[in-house]
Hints:
Blueprint: H1 2-8, H2 12-16, H3 23-30, E1 37-41, H4 47-55, E2 60-65, H5 68-80, E3 87-91, H6 99-103, E4 108-114, H7 123-131, E5 134-145, H8 153-164, H9 174-185, E6 187-194, E7 199-206
Parallel strand pairs: 1-2, 1-4, 2-3, 4-5
Antiparallel strand pairs: 5-7, 6-7
Amino acid sequence: MDRMYRRQRHIYDLTRKFYLLGRDALIADLAPPPGGRVLEIGCGTGRNVILAARRYREIAAYGVDVSDQMLTTARANVERAGLSHRVMLARGDARNFDPAALFGVAAFDRVFISYALSMIPPWREAVAHAAGLLAPGGSMHIVDFGDQAELPKVFQASLRRWLELFSVHPRLSLESELDAFARSAGFDLEFRPLYRRYAFLATLKPGARAA
């Protein structure tokens, strides 16, 4: 990851804004409680966690990423935004990081993952770990590439070839696997396709029996 992002981190946000669609909608859906804690897993350059902290001025925000290179950029961006007092960043593996050790916080009101599952080989473990970090009444929010099933075949093939250059692999079975995970773990799943299934937004909340 560090090798790939050593140079990309400088132009990442400028180039990705054209095809990482739905990120702002995810942030708008978070609606954390006043004084709540919000965690982004795979925070990259800090773009999303900064926007969340700006939109919800009473929260404490946290970000985890496996790449030291991206975290260098993220910390600079957080400081430039004047949010160092409310945004904490740390290096961690999405599968098993310990937030209590990194931040002194064990659970979060909102956990979100933006276009990271398509880059994390053990993405199922990342989803399960994220769900286990929710405070009572909390929710997990995911935005990522969809299966593009309603888009022309030539577009699908071109997009996937392009994404492979950056080690990005859309999880084509994600909808069914999230549904199975939600059922087994006692969550309610809302899965919303975007732009003819180019991308999706998913929200996991504890079901009535789990809550």
